[in-house]
Amino acid sequence: MTTTTTLTHTAALARLGHALSDGTRARILLQLRDGPAYPSDLAESLGVSRQVMSNQLACLRGCGLVEASPDGRRSSYRLADPALSSALGDLLRLVLVVDPECCSSDGCACA
């Protein structure tokens, strides 16, 4: 089976790579696999400022990976597509198969 790679495919993977290249953004994506969340709750659970969270969510929106849903005067964020949750889980499992020590309890050897 031959797969045709287009510039669109390349750009899509580059956007995902950019999103995952920052630890905070990767943690946001992994946390949103559990369901929608408010920025203030995400900031608190990840131990970052609200300004950092706002900047990272803006980046993830720009990459097309998360969406905001208005909820009164606030907005909650969710993964832009439910398939992204499975894809992130698959990618994480693959990384752990390739290098099981990468994300040991001692910290990430990849960083």
TrEMBL record:
Organism encoding this protein: Agromyces binzhouensis
Q: What is this protein called?
A: ArsR family transcriptional regulator
PANTHER family referenced in this protein's UniProt entry, alphabetically: HTH-TYPE TRANSCRIPTIONAL REGULATOR CMTR, TRANSCRIPTIONAL REGULATOR-RELATED
Instruction: Kindly give the InterPro entries that the UniProt entry links to this protein.
Output: ArsR-like_HTH, HTH_ArsR_DNA-bd_dom, HTH_Metal-responsive_Reg, WH-like_DNA-bd_sf, WH_DNA-bd_sf
From the UniProt record, give one GO term of the biological process aspect: response to cadmium ion
Q: Where is the HTH arsR-type domain?
A: 5-99
What PROSITE patterns does UniProt report for this protein, alphabetically?
A: HTH_ARSR_2
User: Which Gene3D superfamilies does the entry mention?
Assistant: Winged helix-like DNA-binding domain superfamily/Winged helix DNA-binding domain
Which Pfam families does the entry link to?
Answer: HTH_5
Please list the GO terms describing molecular function: cadmium ion sensor activity; DNA binding; DNA-binding transcription factor activity; lead ion binding
